[in-house]
Amino acid sequence: MSIQTEKIKELIAKREQARLGGGEKAIDKQHSRGKYTARERIDMLVDKDSFEEYDMFKLHRCHNFGMEKKQFLGDGVVAGSATIDGRLVYVYAQDFTVNGGSLSETMAQKICKVMDMAMRNGAPVICMNDSGGARIQEGISALAGYGEIFERNILASGVVPQISAIMGPCAGGAVYSPALTDFIIMTEGTSYMFLTGPKVVKTVTGEEIDAEHLGGASVHASKSGVTSFTAKTEEECMQMIKTLLSYIPSNNMEEAPRVECTDPINRMEDSLNEIIPDDPNQAYDMYKVITAITDNGDFFEVQPKFAKNIITGFAHFNGQSVGIVANQPSAYAGVLDVNASRKGARFVRFCDAFNIPIVSLVDVPGFLPGTGQEYNAVILHGAQLLYAYGEATVPKITITLRKSYGGSHIVMGCKQLRADLNFAWPSSEIAVMGASGAVAILCGKEAKKIKTEGGDVKEFLAEKEDEYTKTFANPYQAAQFGYIDDVIEPRNTRFRICRGLAQLAHKKQTLPAKKHGCMPM
């Protein structure tokens, strides 16, 4: 056998060894937890035979606490490039079978390498987290590794899409990398995220809680809003990533992929002419409006379990990817609050960063009142939504369906925040406030006088409310001033959006020269 042949055999053997990660026993243990290995996850996600792995033979350099005896090729993370539906992506997956997926200095170098390559080549970064945190044996070197990763997350923000899949533990400082990315997906029952674990919580506060209730998928999906999606299985998680990628571009210099449209753009949806109830206080389901106007009724919702009074997600109009922001009248009457405001603001800013037009469907009676909201800085969070809309330079189309009152009218993509096209349904009420509240202020003294004179106060107030409604609570006064471009028939909404997007296809709008704005936080 020649020397060259021997070297090739050695290479093949080393590759096989690297692919085993922490070894067969560790792999079996991972499977017994209902979890796949790092390489199995990558294989599920990317196109067949497209994965090119980098730094397969990298080893850590730690010799403290006997770590020199715990050497595994690749050192706990599988990283490289691949394609998904033919599009280039960079991906890394932490390998829990190797030292619990704990992060070392060399592991961080591998991650930073693929993130740097992603930015240079304009491709999305997908990270799969399954790690016990920093490798304690390496001390400050492991922490420095996290710092290097976080800096890449920051530099890549708004340059290439970043998607995090949490498929196991993600605790301590490790949570900040996913938090800095654009979207987080958590697997139900097997993943959790928190800064301090149950033991620390009990020591410091005396509170007894397990990992699932402290930082599980359901908690972050419905209460904190940390995660964008939850998946019942790892297979479902991978499919979610593929679906998400189909709506977004590879980088901030490109447009999102267009798809073939088989749904006529001039399709009339007669049900929309009847969807608004006669009673202004009666709810209806905004999802019915969304699915009635999008291509084939498809809608990919982001953060579906969090702040349900506002809906965010992606859809197609005539094959073009669009971000939808919509108030939901069937949840808290569609009012804006702290959570709805920050949910909407984050989504609008992502769409703006990656050239995705924004369609806003407005039915908002105002901001939620009360000390709970004021003490939790609803002013600042509402300003975040306002800032996001006002800063966005992508095509913006706003359609007012029913109520649009006061400050909430402004923050939901009004004409003054540089919305390009503002349409309204005939049922819309655009005013400073609702009729009853306005009349109580405007006619309060008269009402008191009538009451003292023994007159019918209810009849008087009803008459004034009707007068206010006819004068202000309609779209025509706003249209009179040019704040509404047109009052449209509801069933024609899809066509007006599709045609509007076509008109705005080559929109150019810039912001004043500055380093960056100071968004209210």
TrEMBL record:
Top-rank taxon: Bacteria
Ranges for domain CoA carboxyltransferase C-terminal: 264-515
Pfam families for this protein: Carboxyl_trans
Domain CoA carboxyltransferase N-terminal: 4-260
GO BP: any one term: carbon fixation
GO cellular component labels: acetyl-CoA carboxylase complex
GO terms, molecular function: acetyl-CoA carboxylase activity; propionyl-CoA carboxylase activity
InterPro entries per the UniProt record, alphabetical: AccD/PCCB, AcCoA_carboxyl_beta, ClpP/crotonase-like_dom_sf, COA_CT_C, COA_CT_N
Membrane-crossing segments per the record: none
Protein family according to the UniProt entry: Belongs to the AccD/PCCB family.
Protein name as catalogued: Propionyl-CoA carboxylase beta chain
Lineage of producing organism: Bacteria, Pseudomonadati, Bacteroidota, Bacteroidia, Bacteroidales
